Amino acid sequence: MAYNKQDTDTVSKYSKSSCSTKDATGDENIKFIRHFDGQYSLIDQPTTRQHKAYYFLFIHTLICLSIEMSLRLGQEFPNYQVKTTVGDQKIHQWLGDQWGILFSHPADYTPVCTTELARAAKLAPEFAKRNTKLIGLSCDTVELHREWIEDIHAYADITDQCSKQFPFPIIDDSDRAIATKLGMIDPVETDNEGIPLTARSVFYIGPDKKVKALLLYPATSGRNFDEILRLLDSLQLSQKYPIATPVDWKPGDDVMVPTNVSDETIKEKLPNPVKVKQDLPSGKGYIRTTTLK
């Protein structure tokens, strides 16, 4: 695994041809080498509990500094091979031609995460109506995910036996490979061994496998899944029509027509007339609204 050198104090102090970090006792815990092109590769990985904590923090630091490892809007979501509660999957093939939302949580058997996945399970039919698949992720094993699902069912008050099959898979990222590559590691929250956990990340993936939106919450703040659903509605609507949704927009409300949308496009793509707000001090007619009802 290689990382681009950035012009920062954090990385520049590791500018020798090869070196290692040391803990308070002077023991080496991470060894890596700097290549002639300014990239870094790990020579070996630590094995002790304390050294693993240093290792993941170090990897996270390098990834945050690496431009290549940052997933941006419009980029293709990687076609990871993942181990899930419903078997091994490749992300692109699992999505097919549907929308997808991948969301991570810090850990199984934790209170806030249980409320989040219970809410997601309750809203699963709403996401399905929008041709959207959900998939969760944390740094726990598939076995632990499957056991925890029973608690989620109980918390969500899902008592119908037909509903006992959990409505979406959960990824086993116990080696933190995906979380690290996507910059989803929370440097503050750690497990009982001191190893960083995943933050509350949300990736919206379009049918073209491109990233359409990103959300990132700390472990201490549970997400609002009504907002996650609302954002999905906005994304899908703006894919279908040349519009944008204003502040506090909800499905059924008026939408806005950006200034770069021509009159010809308005006539061709929008079903209803456009209203222009004229009584602005500037006199500029850039606030244009319409309804899609």
From TrEMBL:
It comes from Adineta ricciae (Rotifer). Residues 1-23 are annotated as: Disordered. One of its GO terms (molecular function) is peroxiredoxin activity. Belongs to the peroxiredoxin family. Prx6 subfamily. Keywords: Antioxidant, Membrane, Oxidoreductase, Peroxidase, Redox-active center, Transmembrane, Transmembrane helix. Gene3D superfamilies: Antioxidant, Horf6, Chain A, domain2, Glutaredoxin. This is Thioredoxin domain-containing protein. One of its GO terms (biological process) is cell redox homeostasis. Residues 71-237 form the Thioredoxin domain. Residues 11-23 have a biased composition (Polar residues). Residues 1-10 have a biased composition (Basic and acidic residues). Pfam families: 1-cysPrx_C (PF10417), AhpC-TSA (PF00578).
